[in-house]
Input
Amino acid sequence: MKAHDGMYIDGAWRPAAGRDTIDVVNPADEQVIGQVPAGTVEDVDAAVRAARAAFPGWAATAPAERAARLTALRDVLAARKDEIAETVTAELGSPLAFSQTVHAGVPVLVAGSYAELAATYAFEEKVGNSTVYQEPVGVVGAITPWNYPLHQIVAKVAPALAAGCTVVLKPAEDTPLTAQLFAEAVAEAGVPAGVFNLVTGLGPVAGQALAEHPDVDLVSFTGSTAVGRRIGATAGAAVKRVALELGGKSANVILPSADLAKAVNVGVANVMSNSGQTCSAWTRMLVPAARYDEAVELAATAAAKYGDRIGPVVNAKQQARVRGYIEKGVAEGARIVAGGPESPREQGYFVSPTVFADVTPQMTIAQEEIFGPVLTILRYEDEEDALRIANGTVYGLAGAVWAGEESEAVAFARRLDTGQVDINGGRFNPLAPFGGYKQSGVGRELGTHGLSEYLQTKSLQF
Ligand code: NAD
Output
């Protein structure tokens, strides 16, 4: 695993301003696999200056040229897929097959979608006697989490570059090697110097310096609601654009007419994938009272099959946090039917795939985001009760609805206070807008909605 000891600023790897470093740890065996520099305010400032200097040139580049660079970026990501998957597995711990298909595969699709959008999007339109232009917002400060290390980066950088913005990225401290690999890919794709810059470092230092930098025009943040709230406040005080992709506690609503076995099995797989570290995971399964026991048995059997094959969680802190939630679930009266708080292995930050039955809507494990392989199963009496429970958290990021007829599921999904809903197991669509209602965030990523986050509107009258 190659680790750069500098920052990627203005088209080259430059020495960091300070001497502090961050250890990168493999969560499967707790071994240090590399070190990256811990960026300081000076590094962030140098990166923002490079992005500012590159902005006028990149903003004036023809959309076809931006599309060509993004196509090249997609091709480099595709060509280096194996290396990307191995790097993600080494620093995040996800099983290699999942890293190959999802962690390395999805960013290729997303980069490709923005190559196409850059070439085809109407950056200019006539409205009566006006011409309306969509212009790039400026310098973007992008702050990303570790759970999908490359996807989170590409979902911000690709639309920003397509729009004509320049970027400074501060990736999560747990997964900086994937971010360094991405910076190499950007360079290989022929993106001009200064258009994309990378500063590795700690959130409260480098992240905060980026969010507060007066020459950043838009802060695009994905991460916890707690940090998102602070970034939103900082941006608000500076009257600065902000996009926030935050936490979730999504409901998987199984209506009485649904294929129960399918809905439960897909639901368990959804929660266990990536060791439960997916913001949109359907961690609350809602089942009609009449079929509750059957659903619990199906879910317990499905979860037990995973064992420790799901991979560890990202770090020791996350492991302790998830196990703490499992203990809290027991203390508040929920019943464990699979897994539990004990670690399934002596080494590595593993958590057993865990399923809780007899969960009531107000319990902590039914309200708070656990971000681990923990499923809660709640019973409902009728559809109105299901809706109340499904909408009864501060979050509204995603969800699922299952019914015998699609139209029945759609009617229910339309009443959910949430940004994205899968109907009867609908597939991931890289062009569909993704983002939250309520405290799950502000703004949307992916597709044209994701592109418009990085644009501002100007109209000329004739
Ligand atoms: P986090 O908020 O701790 O960190 C996210 C990023 O913010 C990291 O790069 C971190 O270094 C940085 N950061 C931390 N403190 C900061 C500060 N004071 N100022 C500026 N930056 C700071 O979140 P995490 O633990 O890395 O990720 C897990 C969270 O992310 C979960 O809550 C999850 O739901 C959320 N998430 C949301 C989405 C979405 O699209 N809605 C996607 C993935 C993850």
Observations:
- Residues 138 and 165 are 5 Å apart (CA to CA).
- Residues 143-147, 170-173, 203-204, 207-208, 211, 222-224, 227, 230-231, 245-248, 279, 369, 371, 397, 436, 440-441 surround nicotinamide-adenine-dinucleotide (CB under 6 Å).
